[in-house]
Specification:
The chain is an alpha+beta fold. A hairpin with a 2-residue loop joins strand 5 and strand 6 (123-135). Helix 1 runs antiparallel to helix 5. It has a 7-stranded mixed beta sheet with strand order 1-2-6-5-4-3-7, sandwiched between helices. The protein contains 5 helices and 7 strands. Helices cover 32% and strands 30% of the residues.
């Protein structure tokens, strides 16, 4: 699926606006770009199945990022961070926690599931999918043995 960067940014912005105005968005999941090389190489070297060669985002998962319980704890990332993820992820650190990949810029983290099952247009598919984003509260979080840095 070929999509320009501005189109991807506007889709994310539209979903965020829909969620704030209506509480939901009916936009279908969409690709935010190719799975990057370092994630593909790490997955291949560690027998991790990547369900697709595209990274997807959905309204449901963006809504999950904005839920009230995160807001009351101050863990919601900014709209700009979510809108910028498709481009900014290439400059972020990337980790693997045994189940998901995690992009982090030091302030926030963005969780990516490599083999996520979801319904798209009434069909169950598996995708490399954005799951959620949150503000980081523990600046030493990625120093432990739980996370493997992806080079």
């Amino acid at each position: 699926m070929e999509t320009s960067d501005k189109s991807i940014e506007s889709r994310i912005a539209t979903i965020l606006s829909d969620i704030r105005q209506k509480g939901y968005s009916s936009m279908q999941p969409f690709s935010i770009g190719k799975v990057e090389e370092r994630m593909m190489q790490f997955a291949q070297a560690n027998a991790i199945t990547l369900a697709s060669d595209e990274l997807y985002m959905s309204a449901k998962q963006l809504q999950h990022c904005l839920r009230a319980s995160k807001a009351t704890k101050g863990l919601v990332v900014t709209d700009a961070d979510l809108i910028g993820l498709p481009q900014n992820r290439f400059q972020m650190d990337l980790y693997y926690d045994g189940e998901c990949f995690i992009y982090t810029d030091g302030q926030s983290k963005f969780i990516i599931h490599p083999n996520y099952q979801m319904k798209v247009s009434r069909e169950v598919v598996k995708l490399v999918n954005f799951i959620t984003a949150t503000r980081r509260t523990d600046k030493k979080e990625f120093n432990g043995k739980r996370y493997i840095k992806v080079q």
